[in-house]
């Protein structure tokens, strides 16, 4: 199967997912919409409205053929425009207005755009909120992100404020593969056992973990751990950050994805339907919210008083071409190599980010191994 053919099939699946959601609001049955959308690029003539009409008629044998063809055509245009954002960024509201202007030439009903607008979240605040567990994460990140040396008693004082931090340190210190002869029975001894540098990493990760588990986001948490390890390695290699700062960037880069899980129920159902049907998370977020979880996360860590370079890196880690920040490129590369498909694939972005931070793809591949401390934390958490 050719790469172009595979990309076309993925495009058709996204178009089908959008068509089903639009059709649900327009009162059109899901099955013929999905069938028509999945086949709409199978023959060149079917890319046009008349061809779509013939295809829809074959699928439903008359009936709602015209309406089905219109919905598929609109969703096809939306998907193509969202694919093009890498090359020319536009607000989604602008995209929908431009598609409306095509109606007279393309022959579809412009009223269908209103159903797409109805899909968008009407109660979206400027900054989404996190669950109550965010207090500890904010405290630990603000306290420990600075690239300086820490003493055992400093870390012990912070860890004793929260049982999750204390328990994680003890768990890692007593983790069997480390092969320590004497078990650590106090937080201070645990820190001394694993070392201040490793203890700081454990505390940062342990502080963030409850945010993800509280929202049922285990896969995103695992992804954040892997990204944190990769960001730390990339930071050390490039010199753009200290390894500890790189770890923090990896841990917080997807914090906006947690906030997305606390959207109003109707929007959240639509979000999950589209993601389950093959649409990447950031694609759906831009469509429903007008921004992706990177932009949402940037607003959250700004409230935690992170430095501007971190805020910009989180904001643009899925759109690195929109920012001169090398940290945004670093975070994008960690995101890419983690293997979690949160955005539309783009080898152009990968190449541009590698060039910006001065890395070869082979070097990135060599760094793609997890930190032993984080592996231990996963095992005991």
Walk me through the topology.
Layout: H1 3-26, H2 30-39, H3 49-60, H4 65-83, H5 92-106, H6 112-119, H7 134-144, H8 152-159, H9 163-173, H10 187-194, H11 196-214, H12 218-238, H13 243-252, H14 255-260, H15 265-276, H16 281-289, H17 293-303, H18 308-315, H19 326-338, H20 347-357, H21 361-367, H22 372-380
Helix pairs in contact: 1-2, 1-4, 1-6, 2-3, 2-4, 3-4, 4-5, 7-11, 8-10, 9-10, 9-11, 10-11, 11-12, 11-13, 12-13, 12-19, 15-16, 17-18, 18-19, 19-20
Structure commentary:
With about 375 residues, this protein is mostly helical. The protein folds into two domains: about 120 residues, no CATH class; about 180 residues, Hypothetical protein af1432, CATH 1.10.3210. The protein contains 22 helices and no strands. The longest helix has 24 residues. The protein is elongated, with a radius of gyration of 24 Å.
Q: TL;DR?
A:
The relative contact order is 0.10.
